[in-house]
Amino acid sequence: MSTVTPRGICFDLDGTLVDSLPDIIDSFLHGFTHHGLPVPSVAEVRALIGQPLEAMYTRFAPEHAATLCVAYREHYPLNFHRRSRPFPGVERVLRTLRERGYLLAVATTKRGDMARRFVDAMGLGGLLHHVQGTDGFPHKPAPDVIHHALKALGTGGLWMVGDTTLDLRAGQAAGLKTYAVTWGTHAQDELATAAPDELQPDLERLLHHLPPLG
């Protein structure tokens, strides 16, 4: 029987590692104004962040969802870096976990190619061992993106870190402990409904759970 210690830590990307909501919401709303459609409020859009893009647009304009997705995918790659920045302390926490011997992956609803471009633009590419987008398989709360990320890392998983109940339920479905940060999309009371193992305002507590590996 194998006694290899699991070393995998999975992180959601938007709202967890990077404060990217302003750029995402701007691009999401762009399609409505571009096509002369009624524009939803920022609060309405924010509540849906983390869901697949088409599902989000379907909530507001089901007959135009495909067209709006095209508009978003044209606009966002040109504007994703305008206001997005890593949250305070993220780079230090990732660097510390790497130094302690853990393998780190992003597990995001973003498409893989866009996720990798985004991570590199935010200066986080060198701190992560793998960036896993959701390409051709079920989105969170299904655990598929986490399973793909851990397979790429070649190790078992320990924690899933996210800012939405979708992240937490995906982590639980994958058999990982879950760590919720309140600086992203979902409010603390909403995150609490998913019963995460940790519910924190930042990533500092994660280091307490993950001492250096021998």
UniProtKB/TrEMBL annotation:
Classification via InterPro entries: HAD-like_hydrolase_sf, HAD-like_sf, HAD-SF_hydro_IA, HAD_2, HAD_sf, PGP-like_dom2
Pfam family, one: HAD_2
EC number: 3.1.3.18
One Gene Ontology molecular-function label: hydrolase activity
Catalysed reaction, written as an equation: 2-phosphoglycolate + H2O = glycolate + phosphate
Keywords: Hydrolase
Pathway assigned in UniProt: Organic acid metabolism; glycolate biosynthesis; glycolate from 2-phosphoglycolate: step 1/1
NCBIfam families in UniProt: HAD-SF-IA-v1
Family of the protein in this entry: Belongs to the HAD-like hydrolase superfamily. CbbY/CbbZ/Gph/YieH family.
Descriptive protein name: phosphoglycolate phosphatase
Organism from which the protein derives: Corallococcus caeni
Taxonomic classification: Bacteria, Pseudomonadati, Myxococcota, Myxococcia, Myxococcales
